[in-house]
Amino acid sequence: MLTSARNAGTHFVRIEIVKGVQDSYFIGERKQMKRMIKITILSLIIGLNLSTVVISQTKPSLKDITSKLTCQCGTCPNLVLYSCSCGTAEKMRNEVDELIKKGMDSDAIVLSFIETYGERVLAAPKAEGFYLSAWLVPIFAVLGFGIVILVVLKRWKDNTLTAEMQKSPITEKESNKYSRELDDELDTF
Question: Which pLDDT tens digit goes with each residue over 48-89?
């Protein structure tokens, strides 16, 4: 039922809905909202899966792979293969390029170089097993050194304060005398 009322210059329209119709309206709205949520979640899942497929199908670049490897000629000071200019580095870059053309992905190419030259071919050690210590030891060393410095500075500060307190020229008797005088003056104030 639609009713209309006029109140002090403003016009109000009020819609009265029968109880059963109102309930079915809200139930339909809830179902529609649930359906929209399900569609949104499904779209996100499909989108994420497609993005990983697209990412995994991209062709690795020569620069990315050669930046992970070092030159193995023996004369270069373990320069990254990408920036080394010796003949061995050029040969290794050509080998990487051939593997890229064959369709191998980045990880497979790096693994093939590890099989050929050993772990020393990697520009950065793997973050696993014993090589994990190459990543963690410097972090813990810096943290430990910082903690030692903080403890030493705190003790130094505490020792300085106690030494200054011990050097005080005022004896306890004089301190009590001054405390009484201060109390008297505060009482008269």
Answer: 766 555 554 567 788 888 888 888 887 877 788 888 888 888
What is the number of domains present in the chain? 3
Per-residue pLDDT tens for 13-54?
444 444 444 444 455 666 777 788 888 887 777 777 665 555
Residues 51 and 69 in one domain: no
> What is the distance between the alpha carbons of residues 65 and 32, in angstroms, rounded to a whole number?
50
Burial of 175 (0-12, 13-18, 19+ CB in 10 A): exposed
Provide the whole-model pTM.
0.41
Residue 138's domain spans which residues? 132-188
| DSSP assignment string, the chain | -EEEEEETTEEEEEE---HHHHHHHHHHHHHHHHHHHHHHHHHHHHHHHHHHHHHHTSPPPHHHHHTSBB--SSSSSS-BTTT--SHHHHHHHHHHHHHHHTT--HHHHHHHHHHHH-GGGBSS--SSGGGHHHHHHHHHHHHHHHHHHHHHHHHHHHHHHHHHHHT-SS-HHHHHHHHHHHHHHHHH-
Instruction: Indicate whether 143 and 118 sit together in one domain.
Output: no
Are 101 and 147 found together in one domain? no
Residues 29 and 76 in one domain: no
Residue 46 shares a structural domain with residue 67? no
Same domain, 175 and 148: yes
